[in-house]
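Re: that backbone. Tokens:
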């Protein structure tokens, strides 16, 4: 079991965490409308103090990573236990770790921005207006604010 956790589950966790996410268009209390990112919890949003910065919520981030890990662990465990024994091939393991290493390097590059703000827990409430799912190659446009709050006439 330890063998396929290190060789299959951890790299698949990193790859799926980086490649698949949920976006949340929300109105934080006393802040502008914002696009949040994270599945199943929103763990980051753009920083409001400067451009190209992020606000990262650590507890939500950890819960999200553990969620992805648990899903892959259960899936691989069920396949190994009930369908067929999983054999880990060296080429597959190297490929998975190479791709997940790229995701880790890119994530580390984003996180090390000195303008990012880290919070243990999200320090504000928010009203979620719209949500959706996306892969890394998709780009979601910010929904129209006035769709939810029409201009006064």
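Recovered sequence:
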């Amino acid at each position: 079991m330890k063998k396929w956790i290190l060789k299959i589950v951890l790299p698949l966790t990193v790859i799926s965490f980086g490649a698949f996410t949920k976006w949340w268009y929300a109105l934080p209390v006393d802040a502008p409308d914002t696009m949040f990112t994270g599945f199943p919890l929103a763990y980051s949003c753009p920083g409001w103090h400067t451009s190209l910065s992020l606000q990262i919520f650590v507890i939500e981030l950890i819960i999200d990573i553990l969620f992805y890990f648990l899903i892959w662990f259960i899936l691989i465990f069920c396949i190994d236990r009930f369908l067929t024994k999983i054999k880990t091939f060296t080429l597959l393991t190297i490929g998975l770790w190479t791709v997940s290493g790229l995701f880790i390097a890119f994530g580390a590059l984003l996180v090390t921005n000195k303008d990012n703000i880290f919070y243990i827990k999200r320090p504000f409430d928010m009203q979620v207006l719209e949500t959706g799912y996306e892969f890394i190659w998709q780009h979601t446009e910010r929904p129209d604010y006035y769709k939810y709050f029409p201009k006064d006439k």
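The chain has a mean pLDDT of 88. Residues 144 and 150 are 10 Å apart (CA to CA).
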